[in-house]
# Entry
Amino acid sequence: MNKLVINTQYLENYGTRENPYMKFKGGNTYVMNNCGELEQNQVATIVAQAKPYITTDLLKSNGGCEEYILDVSVIGQRIKVDGGVNAPTEFHIVDGKVNFMRITDNREDGWMRREILEKTETWTNDRESYKASYLMEDGDICDTEAELKAWFEIKEVA
# Structure
């Protein structure tokens, strides 16, 4: 079994839309697990289906940023993929829709409040049906931002 890995490069515009001044700002890693033995044309087809949802340009971003595919590889399923600053985003394609899921382990990354252990994000295509849920230090799961806010309010009162 193999997995398909797509790495992107993100650039942020510090200039204007008409006169951009771009800076490299990391990127994202997308992983399709258990994809079997893929031929080159199958890889190209999957990348073409995912590309509209993982890239952007100055026109689409109203002059703010660009993100493009840096490289694509097929590696063994057991090889660990490091997403760098961001946790890798898993994706799969069903009936022409690209479904994404990213789990951020706050125990390691530590950029969210310490009470949040994990953040799980899911979405389809261009952030359609986006959802985020949070695993809290006491085992509670908050499925909305409102639940997360209420959880913190209850803990602060206690």
